[in-house]
Amino acid sequence: MLNWFKKGSKTEEDSLLKVIEQFKKSGDFIDFQNPQSPTHYWISYFGSLVDAEIIHRDILPYLNKSSFKKIEDLKAALPIENIVVTSDLGQIQQMMLTGSVLIRLNIADKQGLLVRAEMNKAREVTIPEEEFSVVGPKESFVESLTTNLNLIRKRLPIPELEIKEFKIGNLSKTRVAVVYISGIANEENINTALQRVGDIQFHQILDSSYIAQMIQDNDNSPFPQLIDTERPDRAAGVLAEGSIVILVDGSPHALIGPTTLVKFFSALEDYFVNWQLASVLRILRLIAVTFSILVTPIYVAILNYHYELIPKDLMATLVSSRSLIPLPPFFEALILELTIELLREAGARLPTKVGQTIGIVGGIVIGTASVEAGLTSNVLLIIVALAALASFTTPVYKMSNTIRMIRFPFLVMAELWGLVGIAIAFIFLMGHLLRLTSFGRPYLEPIYPPRIEDLKDAFVRLPFKMQPKRPVELQSPETIKFSEKAAKQKKDIDE
């Protein structure tokens, strides 16, 4: 906080006037006196932060109606809650900068009356854009923290749902809320989240992604260690399991932790369909991600070092496809991969309709032209296109970015040492994942450490009645969700 006075040089009343004078340097600051009212008062506020309707409806009519000699009498007359009377310069400055109106009965008063009248301009709740589902709720988080907390509270109307708020950022003073259910969330997880969020020292926080980068366990890992979601139903669901949710004012995304790798391939829609279909979709996503990472490196490795593995019937097709290609397989694959990434980036940065057109037309034109020009083969073009398509099956956007990035080290290792190089890259990848944690919890759970109970909702999703316990990796003190025996009883009313 700025210090507006020096000891021994200014009195407290002079300091308050200096605060007002400093605020007057801003064009949106309003400070005026109304000598015609029964009470001569001074009112000061930032027009860009304050709702003018509240001032004209709930403040000015009462100031102009009666005469007040004490600030406490004025406080009792105003029909507004949470009115503060204070002489604390820091509190006055902070409240005015967040949408409060300062009222003084005399210009040299040592204290003022602060009335909250902030302007709340927020986007309406709409459907999710990144985590859209055909079935299930259609609400998503917005940029207002108060609205987001309301979306969670109406799904979990219990007193055990606790919210701890922080103000982070020396300049932005951004509200950050840590949400959990007392008695279900592990105390160690709660303390870890509160301590890490509370220890953040930064000048401004613009989005939840800032918080995620500052509180994750390993800053040097390409893998996200907190799930980023825009769905309040998903946030409420993980809270009931024992996870911690972090919300940031101004961000339409919530952070979920601790988490594991397999949860990034689990879509919320998996719980809205029958368990057989959900299990098939999860396995399909895992196969697609593996295919996306390995298929191009395997193509390069086989053509460079292991061509004896190619079936005779396929060999003729590959030879004819590459007969006029002047580039080695590695550079051929690298050009196509970079082209796909350029199209993705261009489509993401352009307006929606233009981006879609660029992605479709650009992919067709560049792909066709590169084959006709003899720069790439038909087979590799199909392989790279399928790999790009498979990477989009990841439900969490940040994980799909990671999948796109780790393809390139595998491609380089395949060029250097063939399939042995791919195996070495895989060993390094697994070693990194084995060391990785989220809020101190194993990232590869339930694979390592192996936990049979958590496998019921990992690679496949078994029926709800077979999942009576909360995930072991969350270490919830309340492990039982419901009675397994009661869930298996299926008696009709007429039996």
Automatic annotation (TrEMBL):
Q: Identify one Gene Ontology CC term for this UniProt entry.
A: plasma membrane
> Is Transmembrane among this UniProt entry's keywords?
yes
UniProt cross-references to InterPro entries, sorted A to Z: Spore_Ger (IPR004995), UPF0353/GerABKA_families (IPR050768)
Top-level taxon:
Bacteria
**Per UniProt, what is one Pfam family of this protein?**
GerA
Membrane-spanning residues: 283-305, 379-397, 409-434
Q: Which PANTHER family match?
A: LEUCINE ZIPPER PROTEIN 4, SPORE GERMINATION PROTEIN
Instruction: Report the family membership.
Output: Belongs to the GerABKA family.
The protein depicted here goes by the name: Spore gernimation protein GerA
Q: Which organism is it from?
A: Fictibacillus phosphorivorans
Instruction: Recite the lineage of the species.
Output: Bacteria, Bacillati, Bacillota, Bacilli, Bacillales
